[in-house]
Amino acid sequence: MPEPRPIPTLRTGVSQLDVILRGGLPQHRLHLIEGTPGAGKTTFALRFLLEGLANGERCLYVTLSETEEELTSSAASHGWSLEGIDIFELVPAEAELERQQTVLYPAEVEFGGTMQMITERIEATKPERVAIDSLAELRLLAQEPLRYRRQLLVLKRFLQGRHVTTLLLDDQTSSDGEGDLHSLVHGVLSLEQIERDYGASRRRLRIGKMRGTSYQSGWHDFALTTGDVLVFPSLIADEHKARVEGTAVSSGVAGLDKVLGGGLDRGTTTMLVGPSGAGKSSMALHFAMAAVRQGEHAAYFSFDETFPTLSQRAGALGLDMVGAVEAGTLHWSRAIPSRLSPGEFVWQVRREVEDRSARVVVIDSLNSYLGTMPEERSLVLQLHELLTYLNNQGVVTILILAQQGVIGDAHNPIDLSFLSDAVVLLRFFEAMGEVRKAISVIKKRTGVHGLAIHEYQLFSNGLQVGPPLLDLQGVLTGVPTYTGSGTRLIGSGGDAAG
Q1: What is the pLDDT of residue 4?
Q2: Cα angle value 305/313/468 (rounded, 5°)
Q3: Which of 63, 28, 61, 59 shows the shortest CA–CA distance to 127?
Q4: I need a labelling partner for 93 at 20 to 30 A (CA). Which of 156, 434, 443, 482 fits?
């Protein structure tokens, strides 16, 4: 058997789409971009032609639905100029006002004439890249599916005979013959726009087919921004493996490291669980800042707090978060669930790990991350892939999960403990007329950890962990009761562990 020859590819002008396509669109083939109005078909087509123009290729945009002025204006909103691209504004005869009439119109003649004008323009300009927008207009002119398919077959052979790479745009206003259209073209790129109950709409794409090539299947989020199209390939953790090296990451607090069995091991995920106000974010900050002090890069992704609020609290604990962010050793990002797609968030995390070698990543909190995706099952699958990726990269990942309820029977909104290598439980308890905080390690897969429950407090010089509270009962039930003396409590004459 002769070895198959790889089909030469063309870059699309969207770098991460080329990654999904494993190089780009097959050259000299007919490709379909389908999606409802507003999904981004025209934007992708323009990027494809602009990429060709930058490479010195001749490009033609055939428009049957928009005027040249509308196209130019749309491109200008992205900061693009279409100068150098041949725009063929083709208005079918039936759309011309002076030719409107009430008698039966010879649609077959007009459809054939329209197709002839397209081929004549291609013959005259000899482009290497062509975009035809849109098939909906041609479908309406043809009136009959058989005539429509026959003419597209003729157009396909005509284009391939002249070594043209063509994009056909379809707004899916009609589902008639959709399967036939898919079988006619070489590749299919499907775009989808999902409207949320609240917040920005979510856009995603998938490769429906691409004959003779390998590509990354599944849905991938993307965003249309001023000047660029950003595609966020879905993460495959097994494709990203690195050698895990280095000692455990310390918190900078001897007592806390002792409770955790020496710190947090690299390539593991730790979940900090507790009610609001128990100190989860402050504890995570200690690990991030300790890594910064050791010369490593850390990344903090906050869904809940603004930077002024978090940095002010960090300053009250003696942590110079502002200085670390300004120095570039700590990355802080405000993630807004109503505006952020899950794929874009994963991409932001990957950039910190792959481009800036982040060794500690904090996600605060999982409760708000739940809001980025309506389907819980999909969320868990995507989160599992992200955590596996981070573990493969040797990153120390800290997840924060706020339990519902501050006192009493606090419970988790979703059970994600199986995704974590270590689970740290924080609780409030009453003692000597004061509200105090307790810490305990529920599990740690990678080593031995302390089994005792300790009190901890946050002071201006940082976090302090006290000795074991042997007389504290009920931590796991959510209603701890302390029956011992005050001598073992922090600030009451007892010794602190760190």
Answers
A1: 62
A2: 110
A3: 59
A4: 156
Closest-CA residue to 284 (of 332, 244, 237, 323): 332
Domain ranges of the chain: 9-234, 238-488
Mean pLDDT of 266-272: 96
Q: Give the tokens for residue 369.
A: 């991350």
- The fold of the 9-234 domain, in CATH, is Rossmann fold (3.40.50)
| pLDDT tens digits for range 283-312 | 999 999 999 999 999 999 999 899 999 999
Please tell me the distance from the alpha carbon of residue 20 to that of residue 279, in angstroms, as a whole number.
Answer: 41
Pairing of strands 220-225, 59-63: unpaired
Would you call 365 exposed, middle or buried from its count of C-beta atoms within 10 A (0-12, 13-18, 19+)?
buried
Residues 6+ apart with CB under 8 A from 368: 303, 304, 335, 337
Dig out the tokens for 226 from the structure: 């001023």
State mean pLDDT over 154-171.
94
Rounded Cα distance, 451 and 341, in Å: 39
What per-residue confidence (pLDDT) applies to 406?
58
424, 268 contact by CB (below 8 A): no
Mean pLDDT of the chain: 88
Degrees, nearest 5: CA angle 127-131-133: 140
Please tell me what DSSP assigns to residue 237.
G
Q: Which fold has domain 238-488?
A: Rossmann fold (3.40.50)
What is the pLDDT, as a whole number, of residue 349?
97
- Give me the torsion for CA of 359, 363, 366, 367, rounded to 10°: 170
Whether 238-488 and 9-234 are alike in CATH topology: the answer is yes
Q: Which residues pair with 427 in a beta bridge?
A: 438
